[in-house]
Specification:
With 130 residues, this protein is mainly α. It contains five helices and no strands.
Length: 130
């Protein structure tokens, strides 16, 4: 494991690794959503407080989580193309914010990701069709 100077970051990494090892399907997808939105929120916080290094790291983490979501889309599923479009848009917004930060655009991406996660949570709780 690479050294980490921030104890909170080290604990977060351990927690994420534990979740990944113990997760399947929906739980792993939810973890990616939560990781993306938490990182975007950290980027907005860091920007407001002048922490450019933290902002950059948070944007990279958010982009990685969104790209993982995008890579996991089943392209033949009826919602596949729509999800690819949303994830692609989120990825593009994050990439743009790396050079020209726009907190409002990131807030909208957070809202989009939160809404998709909420819909997936509802779908995951429904009993399978008989």
């Amino acid at each position: 494991m690479l050294s980490c100077r921030d104890p909170a970051e080290a604990y977060r990494r351990v927690a994420v690794d534990a979740c990944i090892q113990g997760s399947r399907g929906h739980a792993l997808t939810a973890l990616c959503f939560l990781e993306a939105t938490a990182a975007l929120r950290r980027a907005i916080y860091a920007d407001r407080n002048g922490h450019l290094l933290l902002r950059g790291r948070a944007l990279v983490r958010a982009r990685s989580a969104v790209q993982a979501l995008r890579a996991g889309v089943e392209r033949t599923h009826p919602l596949g193309p729509a999800l690819l479009t949303v994830y692609g848009s989120c990825d593009a917004v994050i990439a743009r914010c790396m050079t020209r930060f726009d907190a409002d655009a990131l807030a909208l991406a957070i809202t989009d990701l939160d809404e998709i996660l909420a819909a997936l949570d509802v779908a995951a709780r429904k009993p399978p069709a008989q």
